[in-house]
UniProtKB/TrEMBL annotation:
InterPro entries: DNA_repair-toleration (IPR053211), Leu-rich_rpt (IPR001611), Leu-rich_rpt_typical-subtyp (IPR003591), LRR_dom_sf (IPR032675), LRR_N_plant-typ (IPR013210). Gene3D superfamilies: Ribonuclease Inhibitor. It comes from Acer yangbiense. This is Leucine-rich repeat-containing N-terminal plant-type domain-containing protein. It holds the Pfam family LRR_8. SUPFAM superfamilies: L domain-like (SSF52058). Residues 33-71 form the Leucine-rich repeat-containing N-terminal plant-type domain. PANTHER family: DNA DAMAGE-REPAIR/TOLERATION PROTEIN DRT100 (PTHR48060), L DOMAIN-LIKE PROTEIN (PTHR48060:SF21). The lineage of its organism: Eukaryota, Viridiplantae, Streptophyta, Embryophyta, Tracheophyta. The keyword Repeat applies.
Length: 213
């Protein structure tokens, strides 16, 4: 019997690869995925002064009727999550990254703490990302370059720290607003920021950044 026949090796490799690809494609995301993601968030909220989510985010009604949630008319997926100024304390669950049709994520003006799950930066449809005025502590998410549609990044007034990666700013061609003020970022201001032609507002003050634009 032929040992290590190259043809058999190639065919086997091909079959294994096809199987892996079919597994990846097997679970299309739908409104049920979105519900799981929102319930994971509800679960992470440790303080909800008016019991807003506890009362309103009820599994007996469609998530599209939940306060702060907007669904798309055609595809019936969550397109916006805006829980700004709900007074919530807690952390952000990685499941939020499963809201794969999300265009707007506004969780500003709460007391959310902990790190920003990197899965959020897999929602390539995201245009508006406002995490401002929370207590998020993390480094700048370098993985953000996966999101060419982003127009607004507002991370202001958190406790984010570390340097700003220089290369990512080449991959955000549509960015109009970049607000990183009121954090603990340090190091040099990346020169690449000066090359962002769409940028209309840039706030970097109240950090420990150096350099000139
Ligand atoms: C969503 O997809 C899962 C399988 O991935 C399926 O079991 C479920 O019925 C679907 N839900 C809706 C509302 O289509
Ligand atoms: C949740 O809030 C929305 C918007 O205020 C409202 O339309 C909906 O009826 C509420 N649902 C429940 C179950 O209270
Ligand atoms: C989120 O809701 C608040 C309060 O209703 C509003 O001021 C803000 O503009 C909304 N955010 C976005 C991105 O639409
Ligand atoms: C959603 O996200 C979590 C964590 O990122 C993951 O474990 C889970 O399998 C994802 N998919 C669905 C369909 O909920
Ligand atoms: C900015 O863009 C110009 C022209 O495309 C290029 O030559 C330069 O290297 C860029 N600067 C940085 C810091 O990437």
């Amino acid at each position: 019997m032929a040992k290590n026949n190259p043809l058999i090796v190639i065919i086997t490799a091909f079959l294994v690869l096809s199987l892996m690809l079919s597994l990846v494609k097997a679970a299309p995301k739908n409104i049920t995925t979105d519900q799981h993601a929102l319930l994971a968030l509800k679960d992470r909220i440790k303080y909800d002064p008016t019991n807003l989510l506890a009362k309103n985010w009820s599994t007996s009604s469609s998530i599209c009727t939940w306060i702060g949630v907007t669904c798309g008319v055609r595809h019936h997926r969550v397109t916006a999550l805006n829980i700004s100024y709900f007074g919530l304390a807690g952390t952000i669950p990685p499941q939020l990254g499963n809201l794969s049709s999300l265009r707007v994520l506004d969780i500003s003006l709460n007391q959310l703490s902990g790190t920003i799950p990197s899965s959020i930066f897999q929602t390539s449809s995201l245009e508006w990302l406002d995490l401002s005025d929370n207590q998020l502590s993390d480094s700048f998410p370098s993985i953000i370059f996966n999101m060419p549609s982003l127009q607004v990044i507002d991370f202001s007034h958190n406790i984010l720290s570390g340097g700003l990666p220089s290369d990512i700013f080449n991959y955000l061609p549509n960015l109009k607003v970049l607000s990183l003020n009121g954090n603990m970022f340090d190091g040099q201001i990346p020169l690449q920021i000066g090359n962002m032609t769409m940028l209309k507002a840039l706030h970097l003050d109240n950090n420990k950044l150096q350099g000139m634009m």
